[in-house]
Amino acid sequence: MQSRSIDVRHIQPADLPDLKKYFFESPPEFLRSIGLKPMLPAEAADFDLRWQQRFADRQQNPIPCLTVFLGDERVGVHSSTHYQAGHSLIMHAHFFRSDRRGQGIGTISYVKALDIFFGEFGLQEILFKTPRQNRAPMRIKEKLGLLPIAEEVIDWPALIAPLETHVFRVTPDQMPELRRRADSFASR
Ligand SMILES: CC(C)(COP(=O)(O)OP(=O)(O)OC[C@H]1O[C@@H](n2cnc3c(N)ncnc32)[C@H](O)[C@@H]1OP(=O)(O)O)[C@@H](O)C(=O)NCCC(=O)NCCS
């Protein structure tokens, strides 16, 4: 595994250019492979405005989005949708550094992100709706010992077409076991 440390931190304005490039400039075939519509140039101003508002408002409304670093390299984000303060969110993962995918970073960073979402956002449950055909996030759930609780077809605006997903639910009592699993991969 990586000798440099994997760190998960609250998103900062300095992280936005890489995040924006991922959604607006990733190769269309990559975005298609994970079911996402590429964002259009016409949507860029709206993206910037939305993030400006989120940062301006973050004292009152903390932003449930975390950035993953490998040492000082910015690798990706654990973002969220369907956030219900004090209760739950659906967690997502997007590593914008394609050369850093598949190196074991996500297996560690997912658990660090869960820890922050539970510990600092006071959530009671975190859901994943993982497309069945997306092998990397499915494999991570398997490595962490998470079992799906349901199957669901999701049809969100960002998607090209409805996607069949496995639903995973994590609660705070599962964290000791998840940390143990992540540590066992970190030391390989
Ligand atoms: C999903 C993602 C964050 C996972 O992080 P990661 O650091 O790549 O994950 P890991 O390397 O810890 O584990 C991934 C596992 O899936 C496997 N895998 C299979 N296909 C893969 C692929 N296309 N890319 C990366 N890993 C893949 C890896 O080999 C690894 O399993 P192993 O440890 O048994 O070899 C990252 O791959 C990513 O950003 N992918 C593109 C965006 C995406 O699909 N997001 C999820 C939307 S639901």
Task: Explain the overall architecture.
With 188 residues, the protein is α+β, with helices and mostly antiparallel strands. It has a single domain, classed as Gcn5-related N-acetyltransferase (GNAT) (Aminopeptidase). The chain is built from six helices and nine strands; from the N terminus they run βαααβββββαβαββα. The mean pLDDT is 96. Coenzyme A (COA) binds next to β6, α4, β7 and α5.
**Strand content range:** 25-35%
- CATH T-level fold name: Aminopeptidase
> Any idea what the CATH architecture is?
3-Layer(aba) Sandwich
Q: How is the main sheet built?
A: 5 strands, mixed
How would you spell out the order of helices and strands? EHHHEEEEEHEHEEH
Which small compounds were modeled alongside the protein?
Answer: coenzyme A
CATH homology superfamily: Gcn5-related N-acetyltransferase (GNAT)
Number of strands: 9
Low-confidence stretches are: none
What's the overall geometry?
globular
Structural class: alpha+beta
Distance between the termini: 6 Å
Average pLDDT reading: 96
